[in-house]
Amino acid sequence: MTQIETAIQPSGSHEEHPAHVIGFLFKALHHSLRHAMDESLRRHQIDLSFAHFVTLFGVYCEPGINGASLARRGMVSAQTMNAVLRRLERDGRIERRPHPDSRRADSWYVTATGASLLQRARVVGDSVFEHMLSALQEDETARLLSYMRRCIKALESVTETADTGCRSATQKILTAT
């Protein structure tokens, strides 16, 4: 049994400390979410992977964002993000424009085709999230959101992040109601 499989199985042991398994649980949740999104998008014949969906959504939310910021937010390398952006550009879903402040960076914008596809993909994504949250009562969902926001704030207080754009994007999530 892998460490993740072990972590998601409640052991009943009083020796199990949350700090020992929570990272694995977040990773398992992320993996399950990505897999469910990929399968649902495929089933609905939407030609996007989870990575492409998240990137397209990021560009939609922040028109003119550069690839480096998208890579940091997506927790992927610049090379990986570059490949995702190039595919979205090749397929006519986003367009590249010169960055106003840097000749070395590009600004990215969603095209009408990309916006239309994103709208369809968001309906599918919403159903995946609703299915995931159906395992919780309404008050449990509210508590989960509160706990997650508090964990993010706690981690931000001990890390030094030079990317204020990432912090401002996180702030939007933390203050959302």
State the helical fraction.
55-70%
Q: Would you identify the CATH architecture of the largest domain?
A: Orthogonal Bundle
Query: Cα distance, first to last residue?
Result: 39 Å
Which regions contain 5 or more consecutive residues with pLDDT less than 50?
none
Write the H/E string, N to C.
HHHHHEEHHH
CATH class of the largest domain: Mainly Alpha
Write down the overall mean pLDDT: 86
Instruction: Describe the strand arrangement of the main beta sheet, using strand numbers.
Output: 1-2
Cα gyration radius (Å):
18 Å
Structural class of the helices, strands and pairings? mainly alpha
Can you walk me through this structure?
The chain has two domains: 126 residues, Arc Repressor Mutant, subunit A; 42 residues. The protein is 68% helix and 6% strand. It has eight helices and two strands; from the N terminus they run αααααββααα. α2 crosses α6, α3 packs across α5 and α3 packs across α6. It is globular and about 50 Å long. It starts with a helix and ends with a helix.
Please describe the topology of this protein.
Layout: H1 3-8, H2 18-43, H3 50-61, H4 67-74, H5 78-90, E1 94-98, E2 106-110, H6 112-133, H7 138-158, H8 164-175
Antiparallel strand pairs: 1-2
Helix pairs in contact: 2-6, 3-5, 3-6, 4-5
